[in-house]
User: Fold this.
Amino acid sequence: MPQPTTPLRILCLTMNPSVDLATETERVVPTHKLRCSDTLHDAGGGGINVARVLARMGGHCTALCPTGGSTGQWLQARMAQEGMHGIFLPIAGETRVSFTVHEHATGAEYRFVMPGPTLSEAEWQACLDHLWHLPDFPDVLVASGSLPPGVPPDFDARLARLCRERGARLVIDTSGPALAAALAEGVYLVKPNLRELSELSGQALETPEQWEAAARALVSNGQAEVVALTLGHLGALLVTRDGAWRAPPLPIQVASAVGAGDSFVGGMVWALQHHRPLTEAFAWGVAAGSAALLSVSTGLCCKEDAQQLFAQVQTTPCEPT
Assistant:
């Protein structure tokens, strides 16, 4: 049977976008003025980062997010500069700013993440209404990042129901009550890290066998068709109804962990957009996530690094349990 050639339609939703700043200083100490290097500015927030990775990898998508104030205007302009197709729903509050400080003396990284503006019911409902009334609904909806104040914790669960009704696949990357609610409704793909999976399972998850069992439980319970578990310096794990695969960490020098998770999702979704097999898409996720570790900035991989690292990714089937 011939393989489909038309790329899947992707929409990346970011309910809590941000303007991400990154700078460096010699040492972080209390009270003193900390003289910093030039500041890098980027459009950020989970779904926007995924969309940026897709664009860097040569994919295409639409980015949807609520924005407000001068920072929201800056974010819109920056995304336009990067050639991204964005839909921006107006809100009364000011789009948040988050920042990362890299300490030269120790190599430590300090990440300051703001909660974001409080959205009214009318504002967050407008996002759902916009999606519902899309005449050309995406094949894959990526919902990534935190929910801002005012948005109910079952918002992503509502997205899951909407995707099911419209025949789309939901890719989710969030945490806490929002993640639990979405999984209770059922999603296509979830990308937790080990801490998030441990919270979901209520167990410590200290061994590879426990990681795999917890991920398999999400699949067998109908909470997710695919679990892509990122394990930091321990690699990654892919679990579906058809099996489980481990990918060991790549031998690279880590400069910064900022953007690694979003790059992983972006690399994997890019491969799925082009109908690559699921295990190959997983390998692209590992490559893109690892590529993001190579530079100190506001994060995200570059295409050339991801392509070089992809050749080094090894995925090994896990023994049946």
